[in-house]
Amino acid sequence: MKTCKTYSRRNALKMGAIAGFGSLSLPALLELEASTKKSNLKRNKSVIIIWMQGGPSHHETFDPKPYAIDAYKGHFDAIPTNVDGIRISDHLNKSAKIMDKWNIVRGLHHNNNSHASAYNIMYTGYKAGTPGQTQNSYPSIGSVVSEHAKRENPQVPPYVTIPTHNPGTRPVYLGQDNDPYQTRSRPSSSTAYKDTNFTLTDSLTINRLDNRNSLLDGFDRMNASLDKSGTMNAIDEFTGRAYDMLSAGKAAKAFDVESEPEHIKQLYGFDGNFKFGRDALLARRLVESGVRLVSITTPFGWDTHSNSGKSMSERNLPELDLAWSSLITDLDQRGMLKDTMVIAWGEFGRTPKVNVSSGRDHWANCMTCAIAGGDTKGGCFVGESDKTGSYPIKGYTPADVLQTAYSHLGINSEYSYVDHSGRPIPILNQGKVIEDLL
To answer: How much of the chain is in helix, strand and coil states, percent to nearest 5?
Structure first.
């Protein structure tokens, strides 16, 4: 059942009177009204999130400490990039060569070392309601984008997660119709990947779909007056969307990664041992077809409590390096990088000191993320951590990154939705756009 309500001007003034806002000055009332105005998505703007599930070590990725003592320095060396003054892990060679096209946010931080709770923070910009909660209390950025994009392009889903949702990605009070479409499987898990959910079979033709759609329309009209909860409206919307997607066939084409020319497949590593590039290619195809937000969870974990040098060097970093560099290069060559913001991050960083098991533990006090595309400059880093990567010297929060993404999309983050208890809740209540990236 969809329970979200927009916090309109009329609602704002009505609630203001009830809550005693009548004593506010005119400028204050105008400011309140301005915060309730819903902005539209900018044309063709989209976001891809590469979700590094488990919490990637900032030392071994984007914030190496080559001059720290071994207990803090960690497993790898730092290499120069094609931008003077920026060094990253020596296992990110391909990414280093295109550093001028992407950026690093260092000194990123929050205060929760629980996986599920941190998911919430990273996808919503709000603190988790309870420690270790597995469902978010506030809508994810993907669900907000979905709500804004509704009816914009009925031929493709606005919000896709590869392969499934996770704690933090759900719509909460925005309603189930703003849940992500989950691919369930992924190209990296099969050399013959194909999503059949949007494909008509011999037993389900367009003609039969037309007939079934008519029957459903009649059934819905008959029962709509009996259902005052809005459930039938949700069914109507789901039915309409499904019909449009199936009949157009655009979504099915978007999921067909095998249709890419050979040189693009080679760019993404189709003929090699590392498969994550296939997932990145699917994300590019989805945004190219009109999907507004894609979240890809890496098919390998970053929760490296022990022997992290082995897992990071043999799979995690080479796979990330290939996928990240291929995606950024491809988007740039297609003229799509200006319209597509790409963010790579996880729920937290890792402890600055390597533990007795030759790994690192959860550490939300300091972390990093990589950002490319949109109006970002490319070739810069913002923020700074101390000499051991323990705490920020100049830091940012997840809400700052999300504010930057919302600004790229053209969404007013001050806009409010009404939650299940009837309270108006802004999309974000903290954070600022990271202007130094732009």
So the answer is: 40, 15, 45
Max CA pair span of the chain: 73
- Give dist(CA 303, CA 355) in Å, integer: 13
Token pair for residue 435?
A: 């202007």
Express each pLDDT in 374-422 by its tens digit. 999 999 999 999 999 999 999 999 999 999 999 999 999 999 999 999 9
The pTM of the full predicted model, rounded to 2 decimals, is: 0.85
- Closest to 431 (Cα-Cα) out of 384, 398, 390, 405: 398
Distance CA 419, CA 6 (A): 10
Nearest 10 degrees: Cα torsion 209, 215, 221, 223: -120
| Residue type at 248 in one-letter notation | A
Tell me which residue has tokens 């003034």. 13
Q: Decide if 128 contacts 167 (C-beta within 8 A).
A: no
Per residue in 259-298, pLDDT tens? 999 999 999 999 999 999 999 999 999 999 999 999 999 9
Length of the chain: 438
Would you list the DSSP string of 395-423? -B-HHHHHHHHHHHHT--TT-EEE-TTS-
The amino acid sitting at 60 is E
**C-alpha angle 85-86-88 in degrees, rounded to nearest 5:** 145
DSSP H helical segments within 93-157, as ranges?
93-97, 115-124, 141-149
Does a cis peptide bond (omega within 30 degrees of 0) precede residue 426? Answer: no
- Would you state the structure tokens that stand for residue 214, as one six-digit string? 């008519």
